[in-house]
Each structure stands twice: as C-alpha cells, then as structure tokens.
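Lab channel / #folding
Pinned by the channel admin:
"Please post every new chain as: sequence first, then the structure tokens as a reply. Keep commentary short and put observations after the output so the thread stays searchable."

First post following the new format, from NK:
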Amino acid sequence: MSYQNKGLLLERAVLCGGWMMRNQITDRQDANNGRCTRSYDMDTGELVLTGNWMTGSMAAALAALWKRTGDAACLEAAERAGRYIMSLQVMDQRDRHFGAIRELTPQSIEFAPRDATSAAWGLVWLAEATGKSIYLERARLFGDWLVDRGMYRGWPMYAIYMDDAMDNFYSRGSFQSGAGLFLYDLFRLTGDAKFIEKGLLPIATIYRDDFITDSGKLILERDPFTNEITCPKDGEDFVYQHAYNDDYGAAMMIQASNLFADRSFIERGALFARWLVGQQEPGGGWTGGLRPSAVPVAGMILRDYGTLLNDDALLAAADRALEKLLSTQYLDTGDGRMDGAFQGAYEGKDEERLGRRCVNMRTTAYALMALLKAESDLADIWLGIHNKPFRDHRWQGMHDLVF
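Reply from TO:
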C-alpha cells in the first residue's frame, strides 16, 4: 500500500517551503540573516528564531525541495541558512572547542552536540547540492570535533558549556543516536573512514544493544558511566517526545545494516517501527497531539521500513500518519507566519500547552522531508533511502591513472 495522491503531496511540500522562505530573515545587514521561525503562536504573537539545529534541518529540507522542483530560490534560502550556521562555528584554533557549533547565536556559550550535529548535517547536504567546498570543510571541522572531543566511549555527549565554571552533561540520550547517520553521510562525502570507525559503528552498536528493547519501546536515557536506565523511571508516564520522534536513530540503523551487511541493525530498528504501529491512534497520530513532531518522523520510519521490508502493515500505518500530517498544515489563515507550516508544540511562556494555534520549525522541517519522501523516490537528499549506497571502489575496477 502506498499513498496515491502524489500531486497533493508535492503541492503541500511547495507551500511548506514557501513558508520557510517567506519567514526567513534576508537582510544582509541583520546578524540574524539566514534564521527563520523557530516557533510562532498565532494567538499571542510570540515569535522565536531558529538556532543551530533547526536552521540546519531547514537548510537540508530546502536543498531537497530544490532537487525536486528546480526552484533556485529554495537553494538560495538553504545557503543563507548555511551561512548563519557557519557564523555559529568556533573557528579559533586555540580553543579546545574548535569546530564546534554554538547553540543559538555567535554569543552562546553552550551547545548540545546532537543539536550541533543537525546544524553540520545541513552543511553536508549543502555541500552535496552545491558542490561548494566551504560547506564540506566546515562540516568536517565539526565532525572532527565530535569524534575526537565530543564523545565518551562511542556515544555523543549530552551538552557542552564553554565556561569552565559550568559542568557539562554526560548522560546518554537515545535521541543522540541520529548523529551516527550524520557521520555516515560525512564519510560518504569525505572518504574519511574515521567517521565510521569512531562514529557510525559504535553509535549503531550501542543503540541496537542498549536503547531498543525487545518490545521495540525505546529506553530514552542511560547513565554514561554505569549504564543504569535513568529515563523513563519505572511507572513514569511515557509521553516523551523522543519515544516517538527518535531523531533518526531508526534511519541510522538502515544505513548501518547496509554498510556492514548486518541484518541485526535493521531488525532491531524494525522492532521500534512495529512498536510505533501499536501505539498509533485511529486518526493516524500519537500522544493525542501532545508531541506533534512524532507524526512526520514516525511516518518516515514506518514508510522506510515498510518499503525495505515489504511490510504492508507498516506502509498502511505510514499512510495513516501522512493523512494526519496533511490535516495539521495551516492553509489560508491570512497570516503568512502560519500558512504552509504545520501544527507544532507550543514553546512559549503560557502554561496552557494544548489546543493552541502554533507552528514550529521542528515539526515543519520534518514534515517537508516526510512529504517529499512519500511523494517520490528522490535520491541524493537528506534522509533519503534511495540515495546511492556505498560501494568500495575496489570492486568497480582500477582508476584510469595517467602519472
């Protein structure tokens, strides 16, 4: 089973990209140039701008939309986002954080390595789309920092504070798993195997063995030194964002399985996909709308695994998620800060979180990718299962040497 109305999906994807471009800051004299809406509440007018990872996710999604439509404005906006990310990068070689990417602004003293990974990931896909070396150079600087200084025993750290008076966070969160897929993509563009040896392989192995239970339900956090489960605690409510939106751990498991020819990775990821089906509500969503980002991310997981495993139940669940996603896109409100974007979790100051008319880049960037992946078998895009797989050139024959 697969979603049939592909024309509608592309139309909605274009509207989504239009929201991103319309709300991106484009004034070259503004230090926010390249940022876009992180969250906007239609009723209160609260507006916050994107930091590192949401800007990176937007850049990668717009690059994918450019590949699908050929609209040069999409690529220009993606590059503008990439330039903002570059302004966040630590470029002082005397600094032990050289290559890292600050969380929000060039003045920030903190960053979460997984957030910074999504920022650098956007640069990887800009490098692939444009062929411009500067994006790959900057992404590689971050990759070098991550595997050399930002990980403990094969797993990314939780949060870094660039002030010696503040302690770092070392906890292992399941959501950090997607960093392995970034390191795989970086390996594909650079050819540097350390990003597999120190990155994808240990991260995929730890995720398989320590975070995905036999039921498919995720363990969300472990102590980095004892490996004790710290979240969720026994009897705790399980309505956590990253229980459903896994930040691309399952997508990473697909590539690990392909690269290492090891079915245990994709089989473990499939347990999570099937757990998601069991948690899906009749309307196609999860958690009663409390975690809107679950819909596009879980939907992509279900579609990818359903396609690769030829599993009709997963594909049917993916289609239900897609219908739910389409129903949450804002259209014709008359507010250009809303139209084209998708219902997101409220991120403002009001304690009343549900039932609000609000959008955020988290859900909207994921939604754009979910629409494109369901609409076509587009290759060479962020999170694409139709991207060309790695094949050692040894088996393709000798290079045509001249000297």
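NK: The longest strand covers residues 37-41.
TO: also worth noting, Residues 6-23 form the longest helix (18 residues).
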